Request: fold
Amino acid sequence: MTATITAFESSPDRGQGLARDMRVRWALEEVGKPYEVRLLSFKAMKQPAHLALNPFGQIPTFEEDGLALFESGAIVLHIAEQHPSLLPDDAKGRMRAIMWMFSALATVEPPIVERSAAYLMEREKPWYAERLPMLDDRIRVRLTELSRHLGDSEWLDGAFSAGDLMMIHALRRLESSGLLKEFPDLEAYIARGQARPAYQRAFAAQLQVFAAATAGG
Ligand code: GTB
Reply:
């Protein structure tokens, strides 16, 4: 049975690959696993059929052989565990790659998401101009630490892994913020991820969804 994932029928990012189905698509492309995509409107995401898959009414989800998953981290981990190439073979290296996945989701991504949410929901509020530098500084702390860890290395811990995949996608959400320009090494790290053929196939596939929706009027 071919795996099915869910994605936005019409992504607010206009096909820039910032929504989290991109992580799942990228992981599937890295391991060479075919997949189908069920596109959902915002309304459909809150209907019982989708809530049965994800109680929080969000994308992405993953279904295969009676297994239904939500949470991009859990889905990417599942894909990585089923196929070689996204996790090292040795037990310790494998656990460190999983640690980096958690780090992307639990340490690096939250202040990035908070900044995005503030922009979306508070930018007209009188306190926004005063709050933004504080949000930026919280992100700068993490970027400084990440950059120090990365040093001259190509990837976070040896070969490219699911940890890099999650980290690079989380960092991409800062593209429009200007913050990444302060960290050319992290920009180069992101670019290395984006240069991977699997990333490019995943990006093209999700862009095609936006292009088709736009062409349809
Ligand atoms: N922790 C969950 C995971 O990692 O899977 C979070 C899932 C999540 O946030 N899903 C979002 C969603 O379904 C889409 S990815 N939102 C609709 C809702 O909650 O009703 C977040 C996202 C959305 C849009 C952009 N963008 O346009 O740039 C970027 C990221």
Residues 11-13, 18-20, 45, 57-60, 71-73 surround S-(P-nitrobenzyl)glutathione (CB under 6 Å). The longest helix spans residues 91-122.
